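#struct-help
A.M.: can someone run this one for me? Single chain, 1079 residues.
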Amino acid sequence: MASPAKRTKVVKSEHSSSRKARKSANNGAFRLEKPPSAKGFVDGSIYRVKMKHFVTYDECEFRPGPHLNVLVGPNGTGKSTVVCALCLGLAGSPKLLGRAFEVGEFVKHGHPQALIEVELFNSSGKNYVITREIFREGNRSNWKLNGKPATMKEVQEVTTMLNIQISNLCQFLPQDRVVEFAKMSPQQLLLATEVAVGPIGMSDNHQQLIEMRKKEKELELSLRGKTDHLDKLKEQNQQLEHEVRRFQERERHLEKVQILEKKRPWAEYEEARVKFVELKNLREEAKKKRDITKRQNAPMQQNLSAVETELKELDAAMKQQNDNGNEVIRKAKAKSDQLEKLNDQVEEHMNQLKDMKDQEKRREKKIADLERQIQGTQNELEKLPDQSDLQPQIDEVTNNARRINRELTGIQQQGSRILDEKRHLTAQTQDVTSRLNKLEDMKKLRLQYLRNHNRDTYNAVMWLRENKDKFSHPVHEPILLQVNMHDVNNAKYLEKLISSNDLRSFVFESRDDMKLFFNEVRDKQNLKVNGVTPPDHPLSSFRPSRNIEDLKQYGFQCYLKELFTAPDAVMKYLCDTYKAHDIPLGNDWTTNNAEKVINESGIMHFYTPTSRYIVKRSKYGNRERSTLVENIRDARFFNIAVDMVAKRQLEAELQEVKSQLQTMNANYQQLKEQETALTSQLEELRNSKKTLTSQLQRRRTLANQLENKQKMLETVKDEAPNLEAEESKVQKSIDKTNSKRAEVLVQFKDGIKQCVNVCKEKVRISLQHARLSAEKTRIGNQFREAQEQVKKAEDEYEAAQANLEDQRRRARNLKKTAHDKTGIPEGEEVPSSLRDAFKLYPDTLDEIDELIHEQRARAECNYQTDPGVVKEYDKRKKDINNITTQVETQESDLQSKQQEISDLKERWLTPLEDLISKINVKYGQFFRMMGCAGEVSLAKDQGENEYDKYGIQIRVKFRAKDSLHVLNPHHQSGGERSVSTMLYLMSIQEMTSCPFRVVDEINQGMDPNNERRVFELVVQTACKENTAQYFLITPKLLPDLCYTDKMTILCVFNGHWMLPHTKWNLQGFIKKRRALSAA
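D.P.: on it. Structure tokens below:
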């Protein structure tokens, strides 16, 4: 039984009392008896629908007619809920409805589960009864098919068999997806039309054509790549052909060089063998010449021996005289040395006397210098202050310096303490600043989120930050960046409240600024951005309708406005648009007692920790109340927020630390000034002490110097020598030495005479020796000449023998070399093939070398090509052959693929063009009946073969003076697009193969004239024989519309006094009314 809060009843104008469904337990299945009124239904039509605890319904069951069903009722009564039941009951996805993402959200508030039962007509047996139980917890469902447990896949197989396409907007168009259908691209509309009314296989052929065209493109691209690669390879090989030919020609020349180089050692060996024979003959002739010369030179040897004996005797006498002469010379030399020594002694005595005189002169000069220095030192001492005066001054300066040092130390210690405190405060400042920066980084995270999810809005924000000076009033960045939560745990409530479009909206305090902004970013930069303006009245005017203290009994603690901060303009907009100042936030008690809160508090919109509650009242009848409950998801971006309390605390702390730093800096500067003054005084005292100390030290130094110089003067004066006595002593030594010199000179004269006599005897013997030596030389020369002739003959013989042996070894080595170079084993003859090759070339070495040089020169003229290039040429030639085969194969495959595409295209395009032509005829007829014009065509703008770009193009004209324009949001109004969409659906209705069609509130935005015309067209087309079942959902019907007997009007009522659907009997009501009237 329906709850007191709301009862809903669906009433039909036909079949309401004649249809009955009997249920009996028979293996858990349903047995259905079709009444006679089942005529007109086609297989898969909706025969019966039952809902229990589904969205706004407690329990409801209705039976639609086989043709046009008009479901009418005020807004909020539950018309679209019926559409939801059909979609979910026939295994459709919640996403198709555009209302919720989870099936559990369709369970009526306050109940754990809901039930949907849809009965589909089956002309060949029992109707199909599909039952779906939906559980709120876990978002799960239980399925039954004809009373037996089933799976969602089994249910989908039944709907597919009956050609029920819930996901096709041409068949099933919910209210929330009407706009989506109108926004379908031509390509999407074509695919939907193929699925909805195309012959079997047309959609599959289209998809297959798209895939085949894609593969054809890939094959063409691959073939083009291989062809280009093949041409490139051919071009590369063509560039190398000349080099390869030169390489081959060079190889031929080098082959001749190889043969010549093999013949050359054999030719060289032959020349060596001939030369060996010649050298053997020359050796024999040299031997004969040597023997003859030896016999002729024998007498000369005897004469030479006699002369040599006589010369030896003279040499002995000569030696004796030399020994005598050497002894005499030695004695004379001794006397000469003795004489020279005595001369040196005389000279030494003279020099000694001269040194004594020079030393006396230096002593006298030194005495004069010392006396002058002593006088200067005494003068300087007299000018310096007395030591008794200097020392007290130094002591006084030292005491003052120590005092100032103590003061400086104290000041420096104070400065060090201040510096330590400054470092501590600086570190504290950096820490506070770092924490503030981390808080500011939270704003950057939101900006980064905006950049990743809406680049146009991000770019507009960046432009605004650089161009704020262009606006007369403040322009606020998107609300997403302006709102800051006091507690990020409450961010989810605000995200649920504000729409995504408004979150991305800029807030303008002046409409002129908004117009300027849109002109810059929308028109010039083509950025898709949103903008809003707050109301003119002040923020203080937005006050809650009830004091929060009065609501705390229901668990409410605050209003949403108190959960966040934002600029006044942003806050005014949120209060004006979303009533943020008047929506309270409850606690868990509110959640557990939601019904009590709704019934007693009178609050129409509030939040709990997990849900949002919106209470609505119908504008009709008893103003029945309905409640919408929505789950609240976790926050995505408002939880990225700056803690304002922490920020203010940190800013205050930073200000305090900076103030302390400023005070510390002033104190430190004062100490530095004092330190500078004291340092200056200390420096003056140090300079004064240095001067006094220097004077005292100088006085002491001069006193010491004076004492030392006086002692030195006395010493020098005491060292004066007796020059006359020394001079007399030296003269006596000189006289004694001169006497010895006279005696030695006489002895030296006698020695010289003896030397002269010895020399004369040596001259005589020398002359005789010279005569014999000349004779010996003459005979020796003759003998040497003869010996040279003998030696020459001997050398010639030896040379001939050596040459012969060398030639023998050379010939042997050359033969071995020839065997090695030709690869012929030693002892074997040259092969006949090689001999024949040798015959083609000269036999002499010069000719062979000349020919080798010539062939090498020709080879060098063909500069050496890299063998890798030749290998590359050969490898590329193989690649060319392989790729040529692949290209030929791919060309054949491409031709086959193109032929296959052509055949499939003909099978697909011909019926498609015929289908669209038929749709165009019907579409044009419908528009002409309305006094307008419209046409449907197949768009091939982007090429005949671009099958994924094929689409349906709808062109319409609603005014006589206009021309046909493509249907889009730029040329037609929303109502005109609704009319065009509705007429397109009607155009394909007669060709449809689906069992039913649902259109929810397609008449939104139509003017009454168009709405009436469209309704009449729907009636005419949907009420024909053999047409699909039609559901038209509308909140109202115009007066004096055209109706037929095949129409079924389903009226949705609600209120406290509605009868349960099981007691509803329209025929009984009529009979009772007639009875009352008759009475």
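A.M.: thanks! The radius of gyration is 67 Å.
D.P.: also worth noting: The longest strand covers residues 46-54.
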